[in-house]
Amino acid sequence: MFGLSARDTRFLLIVIALTLLTPILLQPFPEGSSLAQFNAGYPDLMQKFAIFGIFAIGFNILFGLTGYLSFGHAAFLGVGSYTVVWMYKLLGYNVLPGLLLSVVISAAFALLIGFISLRRSGIYFSILTLAFAQMSYNLAYSVLTPITNGETGLQVYASDPQILAGSGAPTSPHLFGLVMRNSAQVDLGGWVFTFNVGYYFCAVMAILAFYISLRIFRSPFGMMLRAIKTNQTRMNYTGLNSRPYTLAAFVISGMYAGLAGGLLAAMDPLAGAERMQWTASGEVVLMTILGGAGTLMGPVLGAGFIKYFENIFSKINDGILHGWFAFLPDGLEDFIVACFHPFVGKGWHLTLGILFMLVVIFLPGGLVEGMQRIWRLVRRRKSGGPKRKDPEHRPTAAPHMAE
Amino acid sequence: MGILEVKGVNKRFGGLQALGDVNLSVAENTVHAIIGPNGAGKSTLLNCLVGKLIPDTGSVMFDGQSVLGRKPHEINQLGISRVFQTPEIFGDLTVLENVLIPCFAKRDGAFRMHAFETVAHERDIVARAEQMLDDVNMLDKAGMQASSLSRGDKRRLEMAMCLVQEPKLLLLDEPTAGMARADTNNTIDLLKDIKATRNITMAIIEHDMHVVFSLADRITVLAQGTPLVEDVPEKIKGHPKVQEAYLGQAH
Ligand SMILES: Nc1ncnc2c1ncn2[C@@H]1O[C@H](COP(=O)(O)OP(=O)(O)OP(=O)(O)O)[C@@H](O)[C@H]1O
Ligand SMILES: [Mg+2]
């Protein structure tokens, strides 16, 4: 189905199901219970999961497949956001024109930056992309203030033309009347689920983004990109010009980033220069590596993981810790809380950093590799005892590019 | 007129004359060996043919077209494939994918945006790649990761990747250098097999005289960047100049 093998179709259907059920799956704890703060099923956070998932899926097409590590992809994120807000100002709050244009403009922008940066490879390529992104960031703050509104950030004012907005049109981002920030809440015996229009819009986009990436992974084009990562010399002596392949991958990933940036502004009609800063570029690198670069699901997992930490772990403070360990004798309670203290609340960066190091050292294939190992362990248990130890040292089969 | 015509090629590296006035003609459907002591300029000559190096003067004509100033991928598209001294393969990809890539390169040219096609749906190309793997007795390894192959199998795979493009000229730079005995024999058998079953033009650089004399139709002896003699193997064996070049090097 959809031009996919049976196995990939199943994979895609699972992804679709998980994405659509996210508002339920991320609310495992009843409201008011002590674990409720680990629930992540609120619209703002779920939108971020989907949007940064898109960002990372696109980044993975460049970095995961070709191995070219860009440190400047946040620039496209910013371009996408600015484009959408401008379309709000000029045309009205319908998100569609802005999103379409954000993809087109970020593609043009990526073509320019990629054309120049891809003359170098390795660390020089990374530095060039970083330089371009920082340049964009600084321009957005200074020279380009008429377009970006500088430090204040770009937003919609009552005096803006909004020529397509009729008198009864919604006054916040919407898709043909479907207002993004509208939600339906369902209370099921203590469990509260929020079904938000914006999230479902992002989810559909994310599924589309994932499907396209799946097709690219299975295409001759995707195979060429992986070939570039492995051996460019052989590539060239096989009659293939690697430059247009890497440029195409760069532009595609730039379009994904532009869409993600556009969606950020589609959820919250603001755009600021800080979205283009190098820390934002670094974040998508971390997401991709943490989840598993070059795998299909890895970047999405990584994005979810980091956004979860950023939003959930950072909210755990000493008061909450005391609540958890109240059953312990006072001295011990204080001691344990003191032990946990550096890792939660403002210390969430520390936890994430340690986690990242552990993954890079012990799971070079990222969280996806971790999941595959667990899965294999479970299956081996089921089939009875460890398999024999390969006495002939048979060469291993290549890992499949799925999961 | 040979399919490959090298005329008056010179190449200097700083003060070193790596190639001095090299003339070489390779006739179609023959195996032409280039031998010579270490540092004679054999690899340099080969690099001038595939676009890795540009000669200072002289001309290199292939199939009626000049190769000078063309990039390696353009020269490959003209019909020259190359096997490297250490096998260059796509280590992270499967053996089958390694052979699929040259098939796509041959059909689609240097670049094509086939992002919405599916490799598995390209039945003709997959069949052709599998046939090629079968020809070199590697079909049972099609699903393996290429980097896990033995040295001899990597060479075999690289050869398959070149052959599947049906090049008009196959260049080989010391295909058996640094190989274990078994892998060397394995490679020689493959080369003999290729020569026997395909109409192919080969230029081969080789140190192993046994390999050279059992394969080559003609031999060029290169010393200090200049061809000393060019002749059929029987004549080369006892040639005084050749003895001199090798012995002069040996002490
Ligand atoms: N890129 C380079 N820069 C400078 N000198 C070079 C370069 N490549 C080769 N040379 C020199 O040119 C001469 C010819 O080298 P080449 O590699 O062509 O010899 P060869 O016949 O292939 O030798 P071998 O049998 O050892 O492979 C050598 O003296 C070598 O040091
Ligand atoms: Mg050499």
The shape of chain A, in one word, is: globular
Structural class of chain B: alpha/beta
At the fourth level of CATH, the homologous superfamily of the largest domain in chain B is P-loop containing nucleotide triphosphate hydrolases
CATH topology of the domain at 6-278 in chain A: ABC transporter involved in vitamin B12 uptake, BtuC
How many helices of chain A does DSSP assign? 16
Which structural class is indicated by helix and strand composition of chain A?
mainly alpha
Percentage of residues assigned to helices of chain B: 25-40%
Query: Mind summarizing the main beta sheet of chain A?
Result: 2 strands, antiparallel
Shape, principal axes of CA atoms of chain B: globular
**Which ranges of chain A are low-confidence, i.e. pLDDT below 50, for 5 or more consecutive residues?**
385-403
The distinct bound ligands, ions and cofactors come out as: adenosine-5'-triphosphate, magnesium ion
CATH hierarchy, class of the largest domain in chain B: Alpha Beta
Report the span from N to C terminus of chain B.
Answer: 39 Å
Mean pLDDT of chain A: 90
Kindly report how far apart the N and C termini of chain A lie: 18 Å
- Strand sequence of the main sheet of chain A, in spatial order? 1-6
Q: Reading side by side through the largest sheet of chain B, how are the strands ordered?
A: 6-7-8-3-9-10
Mean pLDDT of chain B: 90
